[in-house]
Amino acid sequence: MEPQGVTSRTEVLERLARGLASRASSGRVLRLAIDGPDAVGKSTFARDLDDVLHRFLPDGAEVRRFSADNHMISIQGRRSAQAADPRWLYDNFLDLKRIREIARGVPETSPSGSVVIIEGMTLQRPELADLWDVTVYMSVSAELTIERAGARYASLIDVTEEPDEIGDMERRYRERYMPAYRLYIDDVAPHERADIFVDMTDFDAPRVERWNGF
Length: 214
Fold this sequence. Notes:
Elements: H1 9-24, E1 30-35, H2 42-53, E2 63-67, H3 75-78, H4 86-92, H5 96-104, E3 115-120, E4 134-139, H6 142-154, H7 165-188, H8 190-193, E5 196-199, E6 207-210
Parallel strand pairs: 1-3, 1-4, 2-3, 4-5
Antiparallel strand pairs: 5-6
Helix pairs in contact: 1-2, 4-7, 6-7
């Protein structure tokens, strides 16, 4: 580890953007994976990085941002009897072929120096690991993951009409989603493999544990 201490979100975004722009300056398309558990803050971080990164890229270069969450199996699939098996859920919850297609894009039509950002869960798994030029792994505790996921879910439903939904969601996380994600941690050790490792316990003051040359 290379403990760097707590920094402001703006400092982290600008340092990462400069490093990406420098690496993209060779003219090829740079592919960045922002990996981590559910509700860690990947989507918001990717959107903010998109906004900052444009300032550092050469004229004509593009930032293309995608979410792997758009290519998960259906909610019915995630709640099916099969998905009660953590290994089945880990192996099947993402459309890996589609994510590979999106990450690769069409290189001959991509402007020089462009950056493709894909954020999602388990992006460093062996089926996808060869795609990435740079990987960021964002981490929080399992309990904080469930807490944040519950708050997000509560904002989408009427808890007065569906009072059991939050409890049901928490059970699904504890019995299905978190055990499946634990398989990824145990099999891949993404926090060790990633170029940049960020503790996202505090959204506004992320703690970067490893920059790896950025």
